[in-house]
């Protein structure tokens, strides 16, 4: 009877799980990223078959697919005709997942299929970084908002100093192409905490027909998170949708051009504040370097006195009035002198 109950529970769990094909992709991918994947032609047909007429979903992992692996959930579509046995796919990263069970490919060219669960950032009240820092439960939401504002301020400072220094020698410029930097800057400002919702929800002047990579993002979770709407894939995938603050933190981290190991840690953490504080520290260090290059020196953060302020010396305070000693004070002083 117990074995029968366990079997029923496992069956219900598999019916509830999201099942998607998995593809090993060695480069780091964050939510909001648009990447081109060269997939076996058989694998592309498998993706279309698994979608059952719905959105064509693909999971990208940075190692061989296995239970416990983490990756990004992507909506994808074919790009051009297949070349031989290879099909180029445009994949838009819209969320994160954890592989809970795996069904091996079993045939050359086919992709492994896995049951995956959603991975999203914890609410500020449950954020481990804020909890370990000693912030009480009621203060954590305000601290999380301050972390985001501070990281965005550091980003804007770096952007301004880059223009003043006339330099493209930063690590970000060395790794990211000009087009990637423009897309990253747009994403950072689009999901900034002070951005207007109308701007974030505005539809770009393009047709959402899958031909333009710049327009694919409009059909992803990014727009839904910014507008506070349901995801474009319906209620089945709503649990995979990141929040606006989570998207904002990933956009800032993409601007850092992280190495593969740092990207793996940023993708795995469920603490938005950890990601934002990492971005703030890296951006602040870059700002210091750019400030020296622009001629501001090492003291550019130190406030200087205002030379136009009223600097007239203040009137000297009158000396304290000395009170005359009364007869009892004189007797006490005389007695103290005799004891000495």
How far apart are the first and last residues' alpha carbons, in Å? 100 Å
What amount of the residues lies in strands?
Answer: 15-25%
Give the ordered list of helices and strands. HEEHEEEEHHHHHHHHHHH
| Total helical elements | 13
Largest sheet, spatial ordering of strands = 1-3-4-5-6
In words, what does this structure look like?
By secondary structure, the protein is an alpha+beta fold. It folds into two domains: 14-119, Roll (Archaeosine Trna-guanine Transglycosylase, Chain: A, domain 4), CATH 2.30.130; 124-293, no CATH class. 43% of the residues lie in helices and 16% in strands. It has helices at 2-16, 41-51, 128-132, 140-165, 171-175, 178-190, 197-201, 213-216, 221-227, 244-255, 260-268, 272-293, 327-339; strands at 18-24, 34-40, 57-61, 70-78, 86-103, 112-119. A five-stranded mixed β-barrel has the order 1-3-4-5-6. Helix 6 packs antiparallel against helix 10. The relative contact order is 0.13.
Helices, strands, pairings?
Elements: H1 2-16, E1 18-24, E2 34-40, H2 41-51, E3 57-61, E4 70-78, E5 86-103, E6 112-119, H3 128-132, H4 140-165, H5 171-175, H6 178-190, H7 197-201, H8 213-216, H9 221-227, H10 244-255, H11 260-268, H12 272-293, H13 327-339
Helix pairs in contact: 4-10, 4-12, 6-10, 10-12
Summarize the model shown:
Keywords: Signal. With 340 residues, this protein is an alpha+beta fold.
Provide key terms for this protein.
Archaeosine Trna-guanine Transglycosylase, Chain: A, domain 4, 2 domains, single chain, disordered N terminus, 340 residues
